[in-house]
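This is your field. Have a critical look at both lines of this record:
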Amino acid sequence: MSVHKSRSLNDRQTILILAYIVFLLIFLNPKDADSQETNLELDESRITEVIDTVLAAFEAHYVYPDIAGEFCDSIRHKHEIGEYGEIDDLMRLTDRLSEDLRKISGDLHIRVIVMSPDDFNPAIGDTITHDKIAKKARTNFNFKKVEWLPGNVGYLRFDQFADPVYAGQTAVAAMNFLAYCDAIIIDLRNNGGGEEKMVRLISSYFFKEPIQINSLYFTETDSLEQSWTYAYVPGKKLTDVELYILTSGHTASGAEAFAYSLKSRNRATVVGESTAGAAHWVEYYDFPKLQVRAKIPIARPINPITKTSWEKIGVKPDIETSAANALDIAHVKALKNLISKSVDETIKRDLSWFLIAAEASANPVEFSEKDLQEYTGVYAEGRYGILIKEGRLFWRYTDGNDYVLIPITKDLFGFDDTNDVRIQIVRDKSGDVSGFRLVYRDDHKGSVRTRTGDWIESF
């Protein structure tokens, strides 16, 4: 018994010694034991090995095997005639391979990159470190803006469909902010895609019952997986709310899946530009020895309504306009539709008031310097004034403060700090400016303030 005890003590000592050695290697070695030194230099044999390995992965896993064979043969031919022979840096090689593969295949999801030090120590399963979550949180998981627009129209911009495992609370908070809006505009003009689970979560708010978003066909396993919205979401569902989705040529992947699905079910109006046309689902394949990672499309979506997808053609907008003008156009469209549906005259009057300003924002009134001059002057014996500063019109109130005038029509101006009152210009029979009056959102009109003289700088 005593011998057994002695051996046990020796084993423990051995374990402690080994642990101490590991500690020294990790914390006292100038090179981090968990990091991988990146060697970016290339020679001919390494170039060949990288190209052969990457192409073999595409031939084994790419969603369209026949197409993979064709573009891989093209890359091999380029290599044989020496097009990659002068590249002496791994990052330049992976960039060139990405460019050539995407150009030949037309698949925007394809990418070859140099593995980062973090890539050599992948998280187990679907876990993510607290540091990575904290880094994403500092960007608010790419939720950029949620806002109430005049006319009870909600606006939400987010530039990525982040994983709801850590971004779900932010998404839910944004959706709940919009819960009582009569129309909602979702801005995906700068959204390049992301997690399918977030596509499902956001979509779920707009359907009473679960609906199928897509089927995913995996070529390698000859299998089909369905993607559905959730029956339950935290907060109020928005099944009766008019929905508008803003798109651009930068809208891609999961953002396209969201827009395509809701458009195909006539649940949303897409406003803006045709999207990028990147539909495939991808997987990452790592080759640590070569320090290379390949992003390979492995599945294609099949929409249950159209029986196809947006690959290479993009999502076509219902209302085509420039990306820059899409928000204004969508706001105008929303207000017009709400006016047509409303039976409450007070609400219709308010919506019409807001519509005039929204239309002006979509199609701004332009004034030359000469045009602006005709409004300037002293009004009501000097109690008020209209003047020009830095190429803009200002209204001077009796308290001496100047307020920016926002052009709505040629003779109607709003203020930049209130939406409840505007200035209506009054003209005489000859068409010259003779005064102004304040008009209010409740249809009340103030008395005319007569123009009594030219603008005097000392006023």
About this structure: The domain at 369-453 is CATH 2.40.128.50 (Lipocalin). The CA atoms of residues 179 and 236 lie 6 Å apart. The longest strand covers residues 292-302. Residues 1-10, 13-35 have pLDDT under 50 and may be disordered.
